[in-house]
Structure formats: C-alpha cells, structure tokens
Specification:
Blueprint lengths: L1 E7 L4 E11 L2 E12 L3 H8 L4 H21 L3 E6 L1 H5 L3 H12 L4 E2 L2 H12 L7 E7 L4 E7 L2 E8 L3 H5 L5 H15 L6 E6 L1 H10 L9 E3 H13 L2 H6 L5 H4 L2 H15 L3 E3 L5 H13 L6 E4 L6
Parallel strand pairs: 1-4, 3-12, 4-5, 6-9, 9-11
Antiparallel strand pairs: 1-2, 2-3, 6-7, 7-8, 10-11
Helix pairs in contact: 5-13, 7-12, 8-9, 8-12, 9-12
C-alpha cells in the first residue's frame, strides 16, 4: 500500500509518500518521496490576516505538483491538512474551495487540538511511564500536552510560533497565559518532568548540538539548547546559511523557535528534552493507514525520519 500526506504549515509545506510494509505483527512505514517547500503562508496571514494573491498562485501550483506525484506514484490514498496560517486566514476557506474546484483535491483545515492529537498518535511510541511536557512549535502556534503514565492529562494550543514571533506578532498576554498554564499543570503531576520537543527547528538544534544518542533516544539538555541558541545568534543570516548550513527559511526562524522551547522548559522546570524524529505528517500517515486498514494489535514502526 502507498499513502501520501501533505502538511500545510505556516513556515513550509511538507509532502511525503510512504510505502506500508506489513510483516507478521509489525507495520513499517518506508519513505519513498519527501518534499519540503518553503512557502511561508504565515508571513502574510499573521500580518494582514490573509494569504496574498502571489502566494495563493504558488500554493495552487504546488498542490498541482503534489497531485501529479500522487498519480505518478500510484498512491492508494492521500490526506492534505492545513494548520494555523490557513485556519486564521480570512481567505483560507476560499482557497480550499478553489483547489477543490480546479484540482479535485480536498484540503482539511484542522484546529490546534486536532493537530496535537495527530502528532500524539506517533509520539506515544516514544514515551514510557514517566511525566512529559510535549512542546510542538510550528510557525503560527505551539501545541502543549502533558503526559503521565502514557496518558494525556492536559492539552492546549497557543498562538505563539516561530514565524509569528519573528514578525513581532506574538502577544505578551498569550505568553503570560502559556506560562500560567504550564506552571499550573506542572504543579499537579509527578516530578521530574521531561520535555519532548517536536518540529523541524528543535530537530535542527539537536543536530547542531552533536550529542550522543542515549538508549536509542535523542536527548538534549536545557543548557545545551541554550548554548546552541547563543551560537546561532552570534551568526548573521548569511553565515547561518553558509557556515551552519541551515535552510534559508530555517535560518531566520530557528532562534524565535528556540525561545519558545526554552521558555516552556523553564516554566515546567525541565532539565532535558527528548527529541523524537516525528511530526504531523507522520501522524497523518498513521491516521490514513487506520482509515484504510485496521491495525489491531500490530506494532507500528516508523522507518522514515522527520526531515529537518
């Protein structure tokens, strides 16, 4: 079975085709194709509350390209989801209708709660019985989840994201509310609390830190994240691209994103962060598989890694 998923984010759009491999009681997802296109929809939306005509035209061309790849790879099913930029844009639904009319492709605009739920689908495999604060930083929003004994006990989405913060469009009251929410729930759970970071920026920070994997888990300390943040800040934009080898659309948002991860860890008094290589597209892929075929008691192994 071949499945495809498209994650329409605020900073970039991710596309993946996966081949599902089934053997006895194990299901493996093998990546066949991956595209990350830097179309920053959030830059328009968080400033002007709508997607510009220029970016709308590029967006439709990009979806047309994805449709062609669906057909070339002969995928059995696909899912296309959009997050904060599209859901906050006053012309987001109009663009969705236009894509449906022109290309016959359905796009689902999901809320922060649904976004967190999809990521949690693949995140559960990374957790044990301890206490965790999951921090998923996107371009326009940050999804937070508290887990205890592999059960989600609290969840909330905040309008704080890397693109939004880069443009100075994050509100102090939203930060204050996030701080209160984290501190409130941190006081109610068992200690210590380990942070879990998802999103391309924390993946890149972990890569730059060059720390050793512990027991097959990617773990980075609070202090190390701060250290990498300081190193990145010392470089101008051009050096971040040319010396640190960051993608152009990553080089400017990685520091604002790091500020969100660091703040969440500080509020919850987390000394370390687990960085599993999973993201929304992996959750979408698993949901799509569940739609097409029952998993039952089979073990799911994600072979593809979350691209940075």
């Amino acid at each position: 079975m071949k499945l495809a998923a498209v994650d329409i984010g605020s900073n970039a759009i991710r596309f993946q085709i996966t081949k599902v491999l089934e053997h006895e009681d194990t299901i493996s997802f093998k990546k066949l194709e991956y595209v990350r296109f830097p179309l920053r929809l959030g830059q328009d939306v968080f400033k002007n509350n709508e997607i510009s005509a220029e970016k709308e035209a590029k967006f439709i061309k990009l979806i047309q390209t994805f449709k062609n790849l669906f057909e070339l790879y002969e995928v059995d099913d696909y899912i296309v989801c959009a997050t904060s930029a599209m859901r906050e844009s006053k012309n987001g639904k109009d663009i969705v209708y236009k894509v449906k009319y022109l290309l016959g492709i359905d796009i689902e605009i999901i809320d922060g709660e649904k976004e967190a739920e999809l990521i949690n689908k693949v995140l559960f495999n990374e957790l044990n019985g301890k206490t965790y604060l999951h921090v998923d930083v996107g371009g326009g929003s940050t999804e937070l989840n508290f887990f205890e004994n592999k059960k989600k006990i609290a969840s909330r989405s905040f309008k704080i994201g890397s693109v939004r913060r880069l443009g100075g469009m994050d509100k102090p009251e939203e930060w204050h509310e996030m701080k209160k929410w984290i501190e409130k729930h941190s006081a109610l759970v068992k200690k210590p609390i380990t942070a879990v970071g998802t999103g391309g920026n924390i993946g890149k920070i972990y890569e730059l830190a060059n720390v050793k994997t512990r027991n097959k888990q990617q773990i980075i300390s609070y202090k190390k994240i701060q250290e990498i943040q300081h190193i990145i800040q010392k470089h101008n934009y051009e050096d971040r691209v040319n010396k640190l080898m960051l993608n152009p659309d990553r080089a400017d948002v990685i520091v604002p994103a790091s500020e969100i991860y660091i703040a969440a860890m500080k509020y919850a008094k987390c000394s370390k962060m687990l960085v599993p290589e999973v993201g929304l597209k992996d959750g979408l892929m698993l949901m799509l598989y569940e739609k097409n075929k029952s998993i039952g008691n089979k073990n799911v192994i994600t072979v593809n890694k979350y691209a940075k």
